[in-house]
Amino acid sequence: MKKLSCLLLALIMCLALGTAAFAEEDNWKIAILTGTTSQGEEEFRAAERAVATYGEDHIITDTYPDNFMDETETTISKLISFASDPDVKAIVMCQAVPGAKAAFDRIKGELGRDDILLIAGVPQEDPDVISESADIVLYTNEAKQGDTIMETCADWGIDVFVHYSFPRHLAMETIAARKALLEENCAALGIEYVEATAPDPTGDSGVSGAQQFILEDVPAKMEEYAGKKVAFFSTNCSMQEPLQAAVLEQENAYYPQPCCPSPYHGFPASLGLEISVGGDDTVALQAIAEKLAESDAAGRFSTWPSPVNMTIIDVGVEYAKGYIDGEVTDKNDADKINELFQAKCPGATVETYTNADGTTIDNYYTVLLTPVDFNDYLS
């Protein structure tokens, strides 16, 4: 009887330990920090999509302030709060606005959380800076967009290229590199390059002031360059909707792509379309093409065939899940990163970033897709 009691006790203890181990293995969380819908709806919706996929028990989300330049400490505190939860095994931040590096350093230092996988998407701190603190950095290949944007403009026979930006953005290494290539290509193609300084949406005039500036300046530029084909590009997300709307109204105005190329970046709102952000990309492209065709503008707009910022969050979350499960054994697995991007965007060009002095940053990945011709999506 005594032996039987001991066996039963041992069995109960094994079951308890097994249950506890299973509970521990299943008690993982991935935290996602994005902007609000006014500064970056795609990222916000991508975070919602991750919650829908894995559930609120495993995906926790928050947003950084719209005026993130003046509220860096708020951004940092939200990231620190994520990492203070021992069940959080990975953080995906997109866009990785200023404060990301400081927070990541404190997470690894003050909190001692070297176990957390830190992924920075669309960083606004320079590559050398953010790559020292993040385990993985994911971004569009902004520099090479200086080639693809100009290839589109050359096909359109553009005479003038207007580049809307502001000092904060132009101080960023990758945006500066794209700007330099745009200027170089304009000179080679005989296109007049115009640098137009717009209000910073994080400044005193806010998002609404920056948007109003675009709505007023585009017609003014078209009047200034009357009779010429003028392409407009802005480096800021919140300016895309007014820029698209303004270009649509001007017969000789052209829009080569959003700053964060996507079928959903600005288009649904500017065209008055009921498109589900993050739905079927082909359906979205067809709807946009048909709406543009109503204004005889299908040949004056372009974008990328998939939403790059949403894809970055999708890839970040899937990579993090693989890391938590043990499928990914290295925090920086280049083959896995490429595999995930190809699964989301077949044909994507994924490469590591090389800075101005020729140094390759092996944990900083950039992605480039081929621009679309909306005429190809007309039935």
UniProtKB/TrEMBL annotation:
Entry superkingdom: Bacteria
InterPro entries associated with the record: DUF3798
Signal is among the record's keywords: yes
Pfam families: DUF3798
Keyword tags: Signal
Designated name of the protein: DUF3798 domain-containing protein
Signal peptide: 1-23
